[in-house]
């Protein structure tokens, strides 16, 4: 399968890694929307949150990774946003499930 984030998780395309475990990989977003902007992905290919199933126990691990990354990057106390875009109306541009962890400044809520 030709998937950008599968290739990043496999180390075939370079990325600025911030976290990795057996199920999860996380790296800095190439177009950051804040001082901290990390993408947290399952190593297993899942198209989006809508395509995830009960067998995808890596989702809990993605949330645990988010908490750890937030602590390590110093935004656990100031706060951060966790977003996953699903499908065209949400503007999902990479069809591999990912959480955006964004923080490091006060964030607005546009819509
Ligand atoms: P989304 O629009 O929710 O699908 O988010 C995709 C995100 O992937 C965007 O924020 C992009 O900036 C980011 N992105 C795309 N290509 C790369 C890359 N090679 N390395 C890091 N981030 C990327």
Describe this structure in words.
It is globular and about 40 Å long. 19% of the residues lie in helices and 23% in strands. It has 111 residues and is of the alpha+beta class. The N and C termini lie far apart (34 Å). Strand 1 and strand 2 form a beta hairpin. It has helices at residues 4-9, 58-72; strands spanning 17-20, 24-28, 36-42, 80-83, 99-103. The longest helix is centred in the middle third of the chain and has 15 residues, at 58-72. The protein is built from two helices and five strands; from the N terminus they run H-E-E-E-H-E-E. Bound molecules: adenosine monophosphate. Adenosine monophosphate binds at residues 4, 15, 29-31, 39, 85, 91-94.
- Return residue spans where pLDDT drops below 50 for at least 5 consecutive residues: none
Q: Helix proportion of residues, in percent?
A: 10-25%
Form type: globular
Indicate the proportion of strand residues.
15-25%
Number of helices in the DSSP assignment = 2
Bound molecules: adenosine monophosphate
Classify the secondary structure makeup into a structural class. Answer: alpha+beta
How are helices and strands ordered from N to C?
A: HEEEHEE
Q: Report the sheet with the most strands, covering strand number, pairing sense and barrel closure.
A: 5 strands, antiparallel
How many E-type strands? Answer: 5
Rg calc: 13 Å
